[in-house]
């Protein structure tokens, strides 16, 4: 069973993968058709994959925000998702895509950091 606290990482991974596919990075463009996965590079599939990964990511971030009672990671993820979605669907810019992916990774890291206790009790194993 996947812990609820770590489900946002799956969404961030999917968003980064969709961003890399939309950038048409040369290794992906070369490898996917060779493996018979060329249909993954179509724009409609990438847009649906991005939407699905956003849903998974925000579900995990909402669960994390309910756990640690801090919405900072959720707000940072909303900014990153907005940057990534606007760069993929409207602007088609590489710089905005990279910044959006980086902000999503930071939001997942921040969600994990906020869920940890500040001090560990060393008396218990």
UniProtKB/TrEMBL annotation:
One Pfam family it belongs to: MerC
Keywords: Membrane, Transmembrane, Transmembrane helix
InterPro entries per record: Mercury-R_MerC
Gene3D superfamilies: bacterial mercury transporter, merf (1.10.287.910)
Transmembrane regions: 12-39, 45-64, 71-91, 97-114
The protein's name in its UniProt record: MerC domain-containing protein
């Amino acid at each position: 069973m996947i812990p609820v606290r770590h489900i946002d990482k799956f969404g961030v991974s999917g968003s980064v993968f969709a961003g890399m596919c939309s950038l048409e990075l040369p290794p992906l463009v070369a490898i996917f058709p060779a493996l018979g996965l060329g249909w993954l590079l179509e724009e409609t599939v990438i847009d649906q994959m991005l939407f699905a990964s956003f849903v998974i990511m925000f579900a995990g971030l909402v669960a994390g925000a309910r756990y640690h009672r801090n919405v900072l990671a959720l707000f940072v993820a909303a900014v990153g998702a907005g940057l990534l979605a606007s760069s993929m669907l409207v602007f088609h810019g590489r710089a905005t895509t990279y910044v959006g992916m980086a902000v999503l990774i930071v939001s997942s890291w921040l969600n994990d950091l906020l869920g940890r206790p500040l001090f560990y009790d060393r008396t218990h194993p």
